[in-house]
Structures are given as C-alpha cells and as structure tokens.
Amino acid sequence: MGPFSDKTEVLIVGAGPVGLMMACQLANHGISFRIIDKKETVSTNSGALIIQARTLEIFGQMGIASEAIVEGIIADKINIISKGKKNAITSIGDIGGKLSPYPFLLMLEQSKTVKLLLKFINERGFNVERGVSFISMVREKDSVTTLVILPDGSEKQIFSQYVVAADGVRSSVRDFLKISFEGFTYPKPIFIMDCKAKTDIPPGEISFSFTNDLIAGFFPLQGSRWRIDGAFPCTNVAMESGTFKEIEKNFQLGLKVNFMPEDAEWFSVTRSQQKVSQRLSDREYFSGR
Ligand SMILES: Cc1cc2nc3c(=O)[nH]c(=O)nc-3n(C[C@H](O)[C@H](O)[C@H](O)COP(=O)(O)OP(=O)(O)OC[C@H]3O[C@@H](n4cnc5c(N)ncnc54)[C@H](O)[C@@H]3O)c2cc1C
Questions:
Q1: From the CA of 284, how far away is ligand 1's center (Å)?
Q2: Could you tell me if the CB of 3 is within 6 A of ligand 1?
Q3: Does 126 lie in the same domain as 17?
Q4: Among 49, 122, 233, 249, which is most buried by a count of CB atoms within 10 Å?
C-alpha cells in the first residue's frame, strides 16, 4: 500500500507535532499511513516552545537531534526577577548531566519542530495531505472507513485499520466518538507574544519577572527575538479586548524590567486549561458497542 493509496494501515488525522511524530515513527517502522490536515498552511508561531531532554533523546534515535539543537537556543539559566531586582539565578545547564546526553532545555519554536518532522517524513516518501478534513467514520469488521472532505469540497472515503486522532484540543474525532474532555479552565486570561525587544535581559537565559500585580516569563528565540508569556496588567480583561497596545503601555513600568517589546510577530490572548480525554482509545466503539 503506497502512501497515497485509499487503503492504508493507519490514517492520522492532524499534522501538528503529535500527528507528525506518529507519522515519523510509523515511517521508521515501515507501516503504511496517510496523514491529513484541514489547514492549508503550517503555523509560524512559537507555540509549544520548550523541548525536554527525553524528547531530544527520541530525536537522537531518529537522527535529527543535532539539527534541532542548531535551530534552537540552549537556555542554561533561569533568572527570577522580583519587583525589578534579580533575586535568584538557577543553573539548569547541568540538570540530568549524567542521565541524558541532552542535559538542558532547548527553546525550539513549534513551527521549527513541525518543519523538522515534516522533512523526516518527506525524505521517506510521505507527505501531509493538506486542506483535507475528517468528517466521520464507520467501523467495519477489521477496518475503519473514514469520510473526509477534500480541498475542492468533494467527499472521499479512506480505508484503514487504525485511525489516530491527533487533531488537537478541539478534536473532531474525539467529538465524533463522544469521548468527553474533562477538566477546567483557569479564569484569568494570559497573553503570549513573539517579538523583538529593546532589553537588557540576558539573551541566552529564561527569566521570570514578578510584581504584586504582574507576572511574565521571557524565553529567548533565535534571531534576537523573544517569546513572552504573561498575565494581563489588570484582572478583568475580556479575551476579546486584550490587545498588544494594552500590554505595551503597562509592560515596562508595571513589571519594573527593562524590556520594551517591538515588532510583535504574533500576539494571542488565551485562558489556560487543564483537561484530559476520558479515554485514549476507543476499543468499545470498535468491538460493536
Ligand atoms: C497561543 C498558544 C501558545 C502555546 N504555548 C505552548 C507552550 O508554551 N508550551 C506547550 O507545551 N504548548 C503550548 N501550546 C500548545 C501547543 O501548541 C499544543 O500543545 C500542540 O500544538 C499540540 O499538538 P497537537 O499535534 O496535539 O495538536 P495541534 O498542534 O493543534 O495540531 C492539530 C492539527 O489537527 C488539525 N485538525 C483539526 N481538526 C481536524 C479535522 N477535522 N480534520 C483534519 N485535520 C484537523 C489542525 O488543523 C491542526 O493542524 C500553545 C498553544 C497556543 C495556541
């Protein structure tokens, strides 16, 4: 079964980091698959930024760890800045030094992780089918028939033995299977920004700054850029009304740090959630519930 045959062993829905890593592992083990994504393009923002040692070890097994390290920044210190004063510096450069060949945190933008994983499958003859959306699926005896919509609006069936739902937090596969997604949402919105900045915060280090009203984390990105995660200066900001301008005017003054954001490439307001799917596989569905 070739990569683009209508029959395949595994259909992966979603080509974010999770779906792509699944694709890489299947390609490595010689298992045929197709991977679809409803989006036509890949996001360019920093998203899931920090790569831990264990992930790098898997990248090492795949032969892509050095490429990942070259594309990222090794942050070897964490600074704690309280009310404008540097209170503590923690060295993280040697955490797990005897346990892992990668004893550090790697700042690697999600867009770069996705690019690396894509390259890995491309080199093995696979590609993501973009603009293709999961709609529904029907169980057969030993297989699943999945209905998808193609970019031209037509519908198509894909036959596979397994379907992997890697379609993110708003998973339509999970919804279709009526698997509940339980947990809670934190009440306060946070902002996330990728930008350049005028600052004296050291570029190869992670810093957290606190005052009575504000908190923000500063994470170095390549190209003299920063990723900032922080709380809004005032408590009752509605997500819809949170703007970069609002942050800009309070930022430096409120946090008491010398950090003036400029050229915001990406600005997003969100509320953190802690949720987990009630089931991670749906055997019941496939055994004829
Ligand atoms: C603003 C922001 C900041 C973040 N910061 C961090 C961070 O600092 N650290 C961290 O660990 N994580 C962070 N995250 C979360 C991180 O981006 C996700 O955890 C990660 O993307 C999850 O990967 P995934 O592959 O499971 O899902 P996704 O990356 O969401 O990928 C799912 C894919 O499935 C596709 N899809 C969805 N529905 C369908 C369908 N019906 N048919 C076909 N395709 C479909 C989507 O188009 C998408 O490409 C952040 C996310 C956001 C939005």
A1: 27
A2: no
A3: yes
A4: 49
